[in-house]
Amino acid sequence: MLVGTTLEWYDFFLYGTAAALIFNKQFFPELSPGAGTLAAFSTFAVGFIARPVGGLVFGHFGDRIGRRNTLIVSLLMMGIASTLIGLVPNYGSIGVWAPVLLVLLRIVQGIGLGGEGAGATLMSMEHAPAGKKNLYAGFPQMGTPAGLVLANLVFLSTNALMPSTSFDSWGWRIPFLLSGLLVIIGLVIRLHVEESPSFAKVVSRNSVERFPLREAVRVGVGRMTLTMGLMIANSAVAYVFMVFTLSYGSEHLDYDRDFLIICVSVAAVIWFLAIPYWTGVADRRGRRTMFLGGSVALLVWCIAFLPMLDTGSEVVTAIAFLGMGLIVPVTHCVQGAIIADIFPAAVRYSGTSLVLQIGAILGGGLAPIISSALVGDAGGSFGVTVYMVIVCLISLACATVLFRSASSGAPETVPVAATSA
Q1: I need a labelling partner for 324 at 20 to 30 A (CA). Which of 24, 193, 299, 367 fits?
Q2: 326-360, pLDDT tens digit by residue?
Q3: How confident is the model at residue 15 (pLDDT cuts 50, 70, 90)?
Q4: CA-CA distance, 234 to 171, in Å (whole number)?
C-alpha cells in the first residue's frame, strides 16, 4: 500500500508545487502576481472539492466489490490525469481553454485520490495482526510525506538541469510526464496485493450492503461531524507549510524557491521517519492522549511558524520547517485509524471516505486560498497565523468531545470499535 499511495500523493503534491510556483505564469498570465497565485491555488482546491465524489463512488464499490480493485482504478486515474497535465498547452497557445483543461484534469486527480485515502488505510489496517492496528494503518499515511519528497526532488532535479527560463516555459512538464512511468510501477505492485481479510469475511457471511453509505451514516451525524473537525487542523496546517509557504516565501520574503522546496522536503523526510515511531506509541499506550498532546503541540508551533519565516533568516526558517516535520505526524499518523474505527467492516470504506474527504476540503483544500487571500499583495502573515490557530482550536475541541463521549459509553447506532486501541 505504501508504494501505491506514495505515487498517488506524488501526483497530487506535484500539482501543488507547480500551482505555487509555475501555473500563475503559464495559465493566468493576464492577472496580477497575487491574483494569479490565487487563481492557481483555486485550481489546486478543485481537486479537494472533487475528492468527496471519488470517496463516495470508490467507497460504495469498495464496500460492494472489494478494496483491491477500487484501489487499482484510483491509481490509474491519478497517473493518467497527471501525465495529461504535462501535455496541456499554456494560455498563450489556446487561451482560456488552457485553464479549463487544467481544472478538468485536476477534477480527475481529485476523484482518484478520493478513492485512495480511505481504501489504502483500510487495506493495511484490516491486514494488521493483533496489537499492531495503528502501525499498519500508519503505513499508507507515510505515503503523504514520501510523495511530497519525491515530487519535490523530481521538481528540483529537473529545474537544476536547465536554465530557469526553460524550466518555467516547458521543463515543468517533465515531472508530470514521469507519472506515466511511475503508475506502471505502482500498478504492477498493486495487482499482487491480496484482498482485505475483513472484506473477505463480509462476503463469506453474505453481509455485503446494497447501499453501504446509507448504513454508514447511521453512526450518527454528530459523531461524524466531530471526527471531521478532529482532522481539519492537521490538514490545513500541513498544506500551509507544504504549499502556501512556497509562494509566500518566494514572493513576499524573497527566499530562493529552491531553498524553500528543500526545507519542505527535509521536513517531509522527518515526517516520514516519525510515523512508525508515533504509531508504535499509539499501539503501546493508546492514541487518545497522544493525539490530544500532538494537537496542543501543533497549536503552539503554529503561533511561532510564520513569524519565524518573517525574520528573513534562513537558519530560523529551516528550524521552523523542521519543527513542522516533527509535530505534524503526531496527529496525522493515527487519524485514518481513528476514523475507520467508527464504522463496521461492511460499510467502512464508504463511511471513512466520506469523513476523510469532506474533512480534507474543510482543512487542506481551502488552506492555500484562504492563506493567500489573508496575505494579499501587500504581504503580512498575522492573519494566516490567526487562521491556523483557529483551526487548531476547533480540532482540539472536537477531539476532546469525541474521545470523552467514547469513554463515557455514549450509545451508538452501530457497533463502534474502541478508539483507544
Answers
A1: 24
A2: 999 999 999 888 888 888 888 888 888 888 888 88
A3: confident
A4: 32
Quick check: 42 pLDDT over 60? yes
Q: Tens of pLDDT along 110-123?
A: 888 888 777 888 88
Per residue, the 3-state secondary structure of the chain, as one string, reads: CHHHHHHHHHHHHHHHHHHHHCHHHHHCCCCCHHHHHHHHHHHHHHHHHHHHHHHHHHHHHHHHCCHHHHHHHHHHHHHHHHHHHCCCCCHHHHCCHHHHHHHHHHHHHHHHHHHHHHHHHHHHHCCCCCCCHHHHHHHHHCHHHHHHHHHHHHHHHHHHCCCHHHHHHHHCHHHHHCHHHHHHHHHHHHCCCCCCHHHHHHHHCCCCCCCHHHHHHHHCHHHHHHHHHHHHHHHHHHHHHHHHHHHHHHHCCCCCHHHHHHHHHHHHHHHHHHHHHHHHHHHHHCHHHHHHHHHHHHHHHHHHHHHHHHCCCHHHHHHHHHHHHHHHHHHHHHHHHHHHCCCCHHHHHHHHHHHHHHHHHHHHHCHHHHHHHHHCCCCCCHHHHHHHHHHHHHHHHHHHHHHHHHHCCCCCCCCCCCCCC
**Cα–Cα distance measured from residue 380 to residue 367, given in angstroms and rounded to the nearest whole number:** 16
Sorting pLDDT into bands at 50, 70 and 90, what band is 1?
A: low
Who's near 254: CB < 8 A, 6+ residues apart? 312
- Are residues 75 and 207 in contact, defined by beta-carbon separation less than 8 angstroms? no
Q: Which architecture does CATH list for 2-407?
A: Up-down Bundle (1.20)
Which three three-digit cell numbers place residue 415? 457497533
Cα–Cα distance, 285 to 399 (Å, whole number): 17
| Spatial CA neighbour of 298 closest among 247, 333, 263 | 333
Total-model pTM: 0.79
CA 43 to chain centre: 16
